[in-house]
């Protein structure tokens, strides 16, 4: 059960007419009163003689009894209470009791208070009611309201228990502000897929991804075509910012601006600045292990950026699993930047699912555990590299490294879900789990072509080579070998083991390391996972040499910039240090 406290208003009759009206899309059915402060309150829905004006005058009577200069400008209080879709349809009597409980807990009409505010509860659908009240008591005083939204949420949890309804996880104050009904209606009128608030939130997240300074952040916002207002102190220091879409105007024709904090709690300027304040000493783990990537030549390009991001994501997994809470929270928040950057720069056939994944993960990146920035530097640099490398093509090495990165990001989302679940962050855990499902769908789209090419190569391997790779699989992974060989992608794994051997490595320790470094139970295809882990660990091209095809961009994809430059570790221990 979800109670929603709406903005206070100044016109009682306007809200009453909406509640008893047909709705914006004829969705209101049988509007009627289920309860009110007085049993004799007129019901314009069921009584043909009653009018909305009569109900308004009755509710507003204490307000109008005050001198004009003492009347509150915003005197209309509005709370809606909605049941979950799977809950049974409650009778009017139950909704009346729920309304009284909400009014009592919020302080609008405490139990036994004969001089409390006047109110009415209207039902115009099976699953919810609206409660309207006027904020002047019968004795002329104002009600004592304090944090009524949180009190209503707490009472909703008790109502769920008492009525046997679905138990909704309590809010924790980390959710982004939802668009108002007025904003949603405005978007519908303008033919927008999302509200201005939602569009701005996504644009700001894209601008933050991998940014390293205020100048770069605001430059990206300006490049996206947004209107920007900066709040500057008399000293000249920048205190905050507001942004607006150029074509989102109010009734007077002025742009509608939103501050960063009104878009999401972590998009205020002070919170964004925390990401840029990275103490140098924080970049090295306390256990002395090397977190930074090996020194590499200055190679650019979408494929290389994706390989670097995959390595950084692997490091983040280890920290989430084994690091302190502050470092884990920072990694999870930075992972959101990588997903935002990946969604911006991936090919069309994966873009929608990646955007959904980034949107879902937004909530997972916020909790009341304060992120300790520093060790998230590799992930934030990875996001920056993805943005700066530009849009990847859908085929060839670009497409294969995209599949490799999405595969690793899937496991990071699962790790984040498990971490939040251990901390009892139910909303965040659910968001991370939903992210994983979107990433699974994006992976299928990204991996179809490169895995098909690798499978084809594996199917054409010499029979003795295939038998040797199968024997190695049974030797190294006896508990998984039968399942792996039954998977459609087993030939792709055989081809990758062959590539590892041809590159001069011993496949046995690398395969052992690839399997034990991270759980495989959540993988839809163990073969796929092992393919990408082996190719990344051995620094092989994501798509084997000789399998480069003509992609959707119309040209032949070049060999990965990393191929032939990076040298793979010769032993499993070396691989562990690199990873």
Structure description:
This protein has three domains: 2-163, BirA Bifunctional Protein, domain 2 (2-Layer Sandwich), CATH 3.30.930; 188-276, no CATH class; 285-578, no CATH class. It is elongated and about 95 Å long. The chain has helices at residues 12-20, 52-64, 92-106, 148-163, 181-190, 196-208, 214-223, 260-263, 269-276, 302-322, 325-345, 348-364, 377-389, 396-422, 426-459, 463-476, 481-485, 490-502, 507-516, 526-537, 572-578, and strands spanning 2-5, 32-36, 76-82, 117-125, 128-137, 227-232, 238-244, 258-259. Helix content is 50%, strand content 9%. The chain has a five-stranded antiparallel β-sheet, with helices on both faces. A three-stranded antiparallel β-sheet has the order 6-7-8. Strand 6 (227-232) and strand 7 form a beta hairpin. The chain is α+β, with helices and mostly antiparallel strands and 579 residues long. Residues 280-299 and 550-579 have low confidence and may be disordered.
Count of strand segments: 8
Fraction of residues in β-strands: 5-15%
The profile of the biggest β sheet is: 5 strands, antiparallel
Order of helices and strands: EHEHEHEEHHHHEEEHHHHHHHHHHHHHH
Rounded Rg: 29 Å
Helix content: 40-55%
Spatial strand order of the main sheet: 1-3-5-4-2
Q: How many discrete structural domains?
A: 3
Unreliable sequence segments = 280-299, 550-579
Which structural category fits the helices and strands? Answer: alpha+beta
Which overall shape is indicated by the principal axes computed on the Cα atoms? elongated
Mean pLDDT across every amino acid position: 87
Distance between the termini: 46 Å
Total of DSSP H or I helical runs spanning 4+ residues: 21
